[in-house]
Amino acid sequence: MSHFRFIDLFAGIGGFHIAMHNLGGKCVFASEIDPYAANTYKMNFGIDPLCDIRTLDEKAIPNHDVLCAGFPCQAFSKAGKQEGFDDTRGTLFFEIKRILKYHKPKYIILENVRNLTSHDKGRTWMVISESLKELGYVITERPLIVSPHQVGVPQLRERVFILGVYSSATKKRGLHFDLPPSHRNQTNGITILNEKSQKDYAISQYEEYVLSAWDEFIKGVGRLNLGFPIWANEFGKSYNLDSLPGWKANFILKNRKLYSQNKAYIDKWLEKHNNLTDFVPTHTKFEWQAGEYITSIWDGIIQFRPSGIRVKRPTEFPALVAMVHNPVVGWEKRRLSPREVANLQSFPSDFIINSNTQQAYRQFGNAVNVKVVEFLAQQLFDQV
Ligand SMILES: C[S@@+](CC[C@H](N)C(=O)[O-])C[C@H]1O[C@@H](n2cnc3c(N)ncnc32)[C@H](O)[C@@H]1O
Q: Cα–Cα distances in Å, from 178 out to 50, 182, 295?
């Protein structure tokens, strides 16, 4: 399909816009409530999307062939309160429904967090899919879950996509998509790095010290013995665990066992590092999630998470999330630059990034991966 018209709801900074434009589409309407994101959108596409979709009369929206919407996910995400449709943000889906009912565009492309499919024991997905069918859309029987690593981009970011065709436009009863296998470790984090960023975004001296200490630890104790979260504050403790939840007591018992098996080394390590008293409490917790793949923290991708430090293989970055700290590229001892974060979301190299770095990270963390949308939309347009 070429020369089609699309609308971009909950537009953010335009991940859908870029994908649709690349496939030959023209944007005829966009809506975004956040003034910072709207400003980035306007700078890039010359369209001011600033408006609250809840206050907009659907009749004011021009006719279009494709409706795109990455509707807000807080209500469905694990990080949110899981209130689904009882949370007013969950009801933003009904704004999409209202617009679909009036315009009946040929195609719909919706995106949300993976958790949408299991939320409320699957009822949330049922409400959405039944609503779309009632409106006359043919959609896939099951939600499509796709991550950028499946299309060659080194980011693990599983998202659910709901694609549909208006029934009068197709004789098909269902849609079929060929998804690439979700094998991990086929991509390489290095491919999104930008040489020019090497000197910037360096981790702090404190962070380097903490990571060096943990790097000694994994070598001293053996990385393959670290198949559970390490809680250094538990080393040498023997208090009663009866009042703790089972999962917590289990981790603590594993930590106690690791300590008793490596007491001589760990005691020396603790002494050398002042019993970790200079560490921020969350940095006394550590997770090695790189298996055998690498032998040093400095060869991996590192996250400073509220639950502790986590090290992963260099094959793919964890999902960019608006709230969580930007990952550290171990072998360059620095964080990702906004341009690299743009690369991770498959935004083009001439995309104008918000000059406020924190806003830029947040905006890309909220965005949809362009290459994934292009991949799915092309299949949707090709089959009907
Ligand atoms: C998950 S993000 C979508 C990001 C977008 N797909 C992209 O590629 O950048 C959801 C967006 O919906 C916007 N939003 C939330 N409520 C809205 C409303 N009532 N009207 C318009 N936009 C809204 C948020 O500000 C946020 O940018």
A: 36, 12, 36
Q: What residue owns the CA closest to ligand 1's atom 26?
A: 12
Answer yes or no: is the C-beta of 52 below 6 A from any ligand 1 atom: yes
Q: Is 73 a catalytic residue?
A: yes
Per-residue CA distances from 144 to 147, 179, 339, 380 (Å): 10, 9, 29, 12
In the predicted structure, residue 308 carries a pLDDT above the cut 80:
yes
| Domains assigned to the chain | 4-183+350-354+358-383 (3.40.50.150), 202-335 (no CATH)
User: Is residue 8 in contact with ligand 1, taking CB distance under 6 Å?
Assistant: no
On the question of pLDDT at 73 being above 80, the answer is no
The yes-or-no verdict on residue 180 having pLDDT over 90 is no
CA of residue 92 to ligand 1 center, whole Å: 10
**By the 8 A CB rule, do 303 and 318 touch?**
yes
Closest ligand 1 atom to the C-alpha of 52? 20
- CB 49 near ligand 1, within 6 Å: no
Tokens of 135: 């409106």
pTM metric for this prediction? 0.91
For residue 32, report the distance from its CA to the centre of ligand 1, in Å: 5
